[in-house]
UniProtKB/TrEMBL annotation:
<dbReference type="InterPro" id="IPR003439">
    <property type="entry name" value="ABC_transporter-like_ATP-bd"/>
</dbReference>
<protein>
    <submittedName>
        <fullName>Oligopeptide/dipeptide ABC transporter ATP-binding protein</fullName>
    </submittedName>
</protein>
<dbReference type="Pfam" id="PF00005">
    <property type="entry name" value="ABC_tran"/>
</dbReference>
<keyword id="KW-0067">ATP-binding</keyword>
<dbReference type="Pfam" id="PF08352">
    <property type="entry name" value="oligo_HPY"/>
</dbReference>
<keyword id="KW-0547">Nucleotide-binding</keyword>
<dbReference type="InterPro" id="IPR017871">
    <property type="entry name" value="ABC_transporter-like_CS"/>
</dbReference>
<dbReference type="GO" id="GO:0005524">
    <property type="term" value="F:ATP binding"/>
</dbReference>
<dbReference type="InterPro" id="IPR027417">
    <property type="entry name" value="P-loop_NTPase"/>
</dbReference>
<dbReference type="InterPro" id="IPR050319">
    <property type="entry name" value="ABC_transp_ATP-bind"/>
</dbReference>
<feature type="domain" description="ABC transporter">
    <location>
        <begin position="23"/>
        <end position="272"/>
    </location>
</feature>
<keyword id="KW-0813">Transport</keyword>
<dbReference type="InterPro" id="IPR013563">
    <property type="entry name" value="Oligopep_ABC_C"/>
</dbReference>
<comment type="similarity">
    <text>Belongs to the ABC transporter superfamily.</text>
</comment>
<dbReference type="InterPro" id="IPR003593">
    <property type="entry name" value="AAA+_ATPase"/>
</dbReference>
Amino acid sequence: MPSPAPARPEPAADAPLLAAPLLEVQDLAKHYPLPGRWFGMAAGVRAVDGVSFAIGRQETFGLVGESGSGKSTIGRMIARLIDPSGGRIRFQDRDWLALSGAALRRERRRVQMVFQSPYASLDPRWRVADIVAEPLRTHLRLPAAERRDRVAELLQAVGLDPAVADRHPHQFSGGQRQRIGIARAIALEPELLIADEPVSALDVSVQAQILALLQEIKARRRLSMLFISHDLSVVAYLCDRVGVLYHGRLVELAPTRALFDAPRHPYTRALLAAIPGSGRRREAAPPTAPAGAAPEGCAYAGRCPHARDLCRGAAPSLRPDPAGGWVACHRAGEI
Ligand SMILES: Nc1ncnc2c1ncn2[C@@H]1O[C@H](COP(=O)(O)OP(=O)(O)OP(=O)(O)O)[C@@H](O)[C@H]1O
């Protein structure tokens, strides 16, 4: 018999949503069964587990967490590249998960992704012009001459000379390739850009340039952005608010400044302390997200210096914090 899913805490009724958001994610989940086992949820990986947040118009929302915490899975579910196991996504007040077939193909242009690796995400056989023009051809069916003009415009918008349109990706540096990826992502004038670790494969020297480009494009085109990163210092530069993920769950969500000035969750504190030169005292071992099924209690209890029996027995839900953010910690009020 497949084992039943263990009881999960209900999300707080007043989960961190906004008055008139562009995107609203509620109780989102993605569970993967472990290979060779019965498909009982308890036996699988809870890659994402009951995540709720919203992104406002022209807001940049950061999702931060260690490798394996579920960041990319959330981004890919919002972009409709993979289907959730549960939960709801509303985009512009519409049921985003109800879209299928032609309607999905038509609507998904509103949400576009910039991927981590500018090496893997660009087909080496294609010319830059074809890479950037591809969404224009398939979604808008623009005639060739208009496509050429539009490609030139897009290359300029990302700081590239339109004369490079005839070259192939291998003729560019990593930073330039990421610019090409950004040009392709904005070609259809999306309303939400999902940037999944867009600078982590790049040399440190070019990371700042790409972040500045994303910031400029976001402001000029009045986009909203979901910015995914394992690096809190990068998130601090770009994001208005930040959600901290641990083991598939949001453990803290707050305006960026508040999160950095007064982190509430012990995991957020550990992440901040791990930033070189942060001057923060380390409270626990460097944070790494454990693989496998979450324990019944708080997933962070095993490495949390503040954990008590309560933390090991029941998972805390995300609750509003008097300081203005949201935190999922039984002891947030005491520590
Ligand atoms: N197709 C899949 N089948 C099984 N497990 C998966 C699959 N995709 C992701 N996972 C698991 O889901 C969890 C979350 O993965 P995800 O890639 O979303 O994390 P992440 O925070 O983006 O990490 P990274 O930065 O390393 O990509 C991980 O434990 C991962 O192994």
